[in-house]
Amino acid sequence: MNEHFNRLIFLFLFLSVFIWIPVLQAQNQKDLSDSLDLEQISKQHSLHAALLPGWGQWENHQKWKTPVYAGIITSGLSLSVIQRKTYQSYHDAQLLRLDKDSTTIDPFTQITTADLLRISRKNKQLYHLAAYGTLFFYGMNIFDAYAFSKIKKNEHSPLKAGWYAALMPGLGQIYNRKYWKLPIVYAALGAGIAAITINTRNYYTYSDAYRLRTDNDPLSIDPFDSGLNYISDGNLLIYAKTFKDYRDISYLATGAIYALSIIDALVDAHLYHFDISDDLSLQAIPLFYQNNINEQFFMGMHLSLIF
Length: 307
Prior knowledge:
Blueprint: H1 2-26, H2 38-51, H3 55-59, H4 65-98, H5 113-148, H6 158-167, H7 171-175, H8 182-213, H9 233-270, E1 281-290, E2 297-306
Antiparallel strand pairs: 1-2
């Protein structure tokens, strides 16, 4: 799988060189933006950003963003490859220790099984962080190219508010000047992150204990093997699965909170110029008038809604 992943990275970088050729040529041509529909331009810029990170920002005349997105995404891809290779080496060493019939030499004989599990898990987490972080900025690069191609200068735009909120939770609320919402956003996200951290730690505690107990290594000792803290093999698996489920639910809840913060910023930006002041009033004025035909007097009411 590593070989296929590396080939995809090489193909991406190889194609990037040729994609830049029409970009450089386009700078010498006349700008045809005025003759194209704005929505068509936005889709075109987002497509270019998908093909090559930073291209859409260059076309939006935000050239300073081009090296930022290109640098972050390229660095993220490189770090993902490095961390995956490192994690795979430690993971393979774990499998070797479980397979007593294997004739392959363990390259980490000086590392205990417990430390091997910890190092392997750390590198796996770094790999996931780099991979998902790269995917996040790749998506932000596309959304950035689409949104800022439609936003007029000095315009309070819902697209800009959504982009800010997606880039950093709470930033969209600051853009909309809804500062009182910041404690709510950060408290909710903080609670979600805390739940993820606690449940993840408990999951690894029990899953690692089960692995250490069943690896047939006499030097491996788990903290729940004896004494008052003793937990059976079956209960270790149950506890590990329970906290894994809690961790997954915490991820979903935190993701939902993050999405709601973006939606809130979009809605507030749409209503930014909507008049919700205290000037709303209803006036009732009595009226008396005479019918010109039969000269009779009538009484009525004049209602006036001011907003």
